[in-house]
Queue: 4 jobs
Job 1
Amino acid sequence: MTLTRALPVVLLLGLPAALPLGAGPGLAQQTPPPRPGIVQPKDDDANPSVPAAPPARTPAATLERLFERLAAAKSPEEARGVANLIQRRWARSGSDTADLLMTRAQEAVKARQLELAIELLDRVISLEPGWAEAWNQRANALFLAGDSIRSLLDIAEALKREPRHYGAMAGLGVILRQQGDDKRAMVAYRRLLEVYPQLEAAKKAVESLKTEVDGRDA
């Protein structure tokens, strides 16, 4: 489940609307084929003073670095800035159609049109079943519609695809706590804090559960 924007009551942070991607590729420039027996020089061979370009940063590598920064953040304000960048990446499916449907679903949730939101998110998941945020958003809509069981199932699917999804962990903690399963709720919140140590709402949840859960286990 998401944080404030996607889940205003039960989750802890906001999620910006999905961003459409894409610009068409340019036309490839025609170049003559090399003559037989000629070894084409590399850029660094032709001009050794120019350093080789670093490898392109993939989205996964960028996300890994952002999670490192999130874990190392020294203040809640710094952590929120990094979390916003993470959530912007989560909001992109790679499909313009899925992103548009996601935006409409989020608008429907905000308008409390939950049946419409769930229907739209069903379509998003059918288009992009590997998109963790689609499962997380539907978990949110299902929870708000009063279907905690299906919401838990979708949270599990979101975490299967993105185990560091702190929004889904927050939603899991909320539902387990409402069901009276404080011990497992504590596990969810502590796992969340391993990923996002500066999340104040999660810290408060752990503190409110600590005496009862730890005392029960003592």
Job 2
Amino acid sequence: MPDIKHACHKVYLIKYHLIFIVKYRKDLFLNNDYVAYLKIVLSEIEKRYFLHPETMGFDEDHVHMLMQAAPRYSPSRVIQIVKSITAREMFNKFPEIKRELWGGELWSDGGYIGTVGEGANADIIRKYIQKQGRKGDQLRLLDFSEA
């Protein structure tokens, strides 16, 4: 049975495939500390905004996420919440990133968001995200719930 969520007077299952690209295509995600901290920040976003990152995958210059969302948020609002909070927190924790990215922005403008239906479609997207690799050690973060 899919992970159906409950809210006041509604039952829902909304999933998005998100892709965010680092500004200037900088290869920030070769740094394991950045990857680990981004995961922590997304856990905090989940607690406040009910946006559950189910699966994540990193390449050196972009991140893929399969994210469950509450129906109160439009797709553009989901992007806005995730990009703004992750950028602010990454800059606070790692000020050297801001110096490396000349304009002081972590993410490139825009991004990708697509709806994902449960079943075969979600399984295909989940596997695709899990196969994202990074140069060097090819570290992958699989299901977000794994420690």
Job 3
Amino acid sequence: MDVIEEKIIKAGFILPSFSAPAGLYCPAIQTGNLVFTSGQLPLRDGKLTEPGGKGKVNDAGLEEAARVAKIALLNALAAVKSVAGTLDNIERIIKLTLYVASDSLFSSQHLVANGASSLLQEIFGEKGIHTRSAVGVAELPLGASLELELIVQLKDNSL
């Protein structure tokens, strides 16, 4: 097993199997030594995670939303692996973007994103420190509570 996948297991998670896209898009594309993912939802076995994976996020659901952000992150890493071959080919995480379906007065999207950011740093160490945007939106596909995108840099020897 790959070193990064072992770290994912040590953190209490399992990297999901890569699943085919639900629409007319590519889940991840490599250009040069960068991989860009499409938005990933907090899906498990094709269904939004319960609780926390559906609906709008508010202050009462902040902790649960941060937890499901980790699930969306794992789905994004599975998409990266589908083009990189192995997560061990990742040189560093460049950027994480998180869209949060938010109640009108909710302004803690950055704290939801901390769920995914903290897991990246736990798994990748210093290479997991990244730039980030956390954006509140009115609605997301399938009624999801959040959607996450990644940009990662691959090692030169993995090209």
Job 4
Amino acid sequence: MKKMKVMMLAASSMVLSLGAVATASADPMALATQRGCMACHQLETKVVGPAYKEVAAKYKDQDGAVDMLSAKVKAGGSGVWGPVPMPPNAHVSDEDIKAVVAWILTL
């Protein structure tokens, strides 16, 4: 009986985590807003950071762009889009960063 409860709990946890991933990927703009990205970026207009459509155009056909940009978002950096540095986003999960970056590259 105890083994069955453990298995049900594990299955429930897996279903819940899959639901969170599906929700995030279903609306990546909401995820970007929740994680604070939209405070400095917009779709079509440069704010503090570049417009997402500019980022998509620059990296559109580059192999490994999702991984490279995800690492930059996580660590932060400066010099690519101007003098204002992007702060590190260590508080955002790798999965959320990759979901947002992958979405940006489709714009």
